[in-house]
Amino acid sequence: MAELRNKQVILNNYVVGFPKESDMSIVEGTITLKVPEGSSDLLLKNLYLSCDPYMRFFMTKEDNPLGIGTYKLHSALRGDGVSQVVESGHPDYKKGDLVYARTRWEEYSLIPSSEICLKIEHTDLPLSYYIGVLGVSGLTAYAGFFEVGSPQKGDNVFVSAASGAIGQLVGQFAKLNGCYVVGSAGSKDKVDLLKNKLGFDEAFNYKEEPDLNAALKRYFPEGIDIYFENVGGKTLDAVLPNMRLHGRIVVCGMISQYNLTQPEGVTNLAHLIFKRVKMEGFLIIDFFHLFPKFLEFVVPLIREGKVVYVEDIVEGLENGPAALVGLFSGRNVGKQVVDVSRE
Amino acid sequence: MAELRNKQVILNNYVVGFPKESDMSIVEGTITLKVPEGSSDLLLKNLYLSCDPYMRFFMTKEDNPLGIGTYKLHSALRGDGVSQVVESGHPDYKKGDLVYARTRWEEYSLIPSSEICLKIEHTDLPLSYYIGVLGVSGLTAYAGFFEVGSPQKGDNVFVSAASGAIGQLVGQFAKLNGCYVVGSAGSKDKVDLLKNKLGFDEAFNYKEEPDLNAALKRYFPEGIDIYFENVGGKTLDAVLPNMRLHGRIVVCGMISQYNLTQPEGVTNLAHLIFKRVKMEGFLIIDFFHLFPKFLEFVVPLIREGKVVYVEDIVEGLENGPAALVGLFSGRNVGKQVVDVSRE
């Protein structure tokens, strides 16, 4: 029975504060290319892996706020990926099928078929898109903006981490919906991208704004109807007094807070009352039923060039740890992807 | 033309931090008991005045977060009251009518008819109830709990400032709706009231709980479905990690924060994501259309003794400033009312 090399990214230790590359190691194991007898598992060859901020939660030993356990030390990280079925124990999948799955940071993974998010059918689009615009990042932007945000034509929309995997799509969806859209990001290049490639009306570099409140007043003299929240902390505190009556804050993430032992305090929450604002957190697991509807919506837009998607692809599992860690310093420009099989 | 003494409570200066009795004065003016020729105003004799936390916002000179101006210095405070029409310039009202109105802290007030909230018709119930359970306090509890909170039978409900004007009703409405209800308050007497008179399942004195998070875990081992937020700050921060999946935080007030130059920072907002919580602020002005429906709901409950209402009534305008200031130290037990005309 064929035994193959199976390179993995494993977690060396639980993390406190900002994750470092040295919290992970690259190791070489082996794997038998065979699904165990009688099992309905799938053996996958991982092609692309997704770097997602939520992975940080699994690196904390205790008090995991999601209550969903942690990564096992010295085992391959878990994460989303685009993979090809090498051998299938499940009748719905066959060798050669492409899937978007909750897989592991390694070359080959044996996973239960229940971990498949989507069988990939539109193979004329880049495969990496299935962990981005055509995957959970896209669905998150779609469900968050349209279902949680309840946008109206003409709404003033602010997106933080706007050039990221999700933010760039929220801005484009908002523009398609007739909204005025401003994004914040952490470098001049990202700001240029937002304005020149992604069609945002305005964008600013939050690192160059000593007074975020004043910046928001400048871009939203009439206030913000929808704030798509990806960062939390100081940005949220500056947004609150700038919300418009009956505004919505869609809480997708708070990446600026995930590595802080003591999160920044948000002091302006009373504006939720004054402006009658709804602030709502969501997780994409509640919206998986929208996946088919979302793909019907977004695939034609991509084909027509009305939605574009910026990816930041690193080559090789070896570069995975740096890519993952880079999310928290904003190193990535667009969706951070690890290309596993092209190495 | 009759000129009468018109005692008033006026604001001496704008307030920074906690308001003090000395920020207000009692003065004696006079008033002509006549509506100006051609005006549609009403001349009211004020019977009961309502002490409300929101009044604090009008005492701040700058940066009034509601954007609705401030009290005029050396003029009578504005506030809600139950009044009797002495003379009417408007065809809908006649001498002797009882009204619930946005009036002033004085014996007699000349106000536009547009400031009437409600013409009082059920005069078999205590008149003071119309600034409490039958007025905006009651409607706030009703709209906040039922419209914003979307309660389900069996929900776990936590109410802060639970013996206050609004909290005591939220708890009773929740019990009538088949919920499990726990309230927090700031004294043993209030806790006894909640458990023995107002029908809360449990209640605790937050001043005697060094670890609010642990207290909430004790009373809500399965988490909180609805938090009716009256206080903000540390209490909110302790509630967030104790929310249940798809919980709702109804933000009615944040009284603990109104007098702080620098509000307390809330650090646990990322739990909005993990638990998919909706946190929504509201102001009662958006729900005035529910007033008739609310009265149909609550009046029979009061008559049958299924809803009770605890008031803290002080006699005489002279005692108004102390009563108003007392809201912020929790001096009042139940709805704080000033009886103006019985002095």
UniProtKB/TrEMBL annotation, chains A, B:
Domain Enoyl reductase (ER) positions: 42-338
Q: Does the keyword Transmembrane apply?
A: no
Question: Which domain of life does this protein belong to?
Answer: Eukaryota
One function term, GO molecular function aspect = 2-alkenal reductase [NAD(P)H] activity
InterPro entries documented for this protein: ADH-like_C (IPR013149), ADH_N_2 (IPR041694), ER (IPR020843), GroES-like_sf (IPR011032), MDR_fam (IPR045010), NAD(P)-bd_dom_sf (IPR036291)
One Pfam family named in its UniProt record: ADH_zinc_N
Q: What is this protein called?
A: Enoyl reductase (ER) domain-containing protein
Source organism: Phaseolus vulgaris (Kidney bean)
